[in-house]
Amino acid sequence: MTKENWIKHMEEISGLIRPSFGGSQQAWIDFRNGHKSTNCPICKDRAKTKRANSNRKAKEDVYRSCGLTKVIGSVSGSVYWE
Question: What pTM does this model have?
Fold first, then answer.
């Protein structure tokens, strides 16, 4: 789930406006923290996506620090490191 879809979900459920659009930051944080404990499947999907993106970025950083370059194959379009 993308961050934008998750934010729309939070706005619909809470009725709050996100802080970047002029809403109260503290109210948004309080609702988000309380909503985490409800085991919402949409929020679990967002957490899974966020964790996967973080892991991918860390792995790519390690590859780059080893001197590898990310390459996209011209025929198959697959991504590999060389």
Answer: 0.70
